Amino acid sequence: MVREVPSSPRSRVWLVEFDGEPAIVKQIGGGSSARDRYQQEATALRLAGRARPPVVPELLAADPDTRVLVLEYLTGQERVDGWMTAWAAALPGYTLRPVPRTPVPCPPGAARARPMPARS
Question: What is the DSSP string of 23-70?
Fold first, then answer.
């Protein structure tokens, strides 16, 4: 079985089966930054994969020449609050700091973005 699943415009993703076992195959799309995006994602998956309990699917295979990642397919997984914190904490040398809620001054002449609404 091979079935393409929705993804961002900068990658293609398929649900596949290898010997009856489902997996996700992701190819990072082209463009000048494709190799860097591939390397960043592969590195992040490897580092976050060290966390216990796991916070990302296992990276089963990676091919830098074609920018393809093969990931464990997770079934029956519910969204867990705080997963991002666990993922970030799994990165070596990464220190979690609160995001400041005070406005940061804009340089003169810079366009100011509208503030994001507070999370509920």
Answer: EEEEEE--STTHHHHHHHHHHHHHHHTTSSS--S--EEEEETTTTEEE
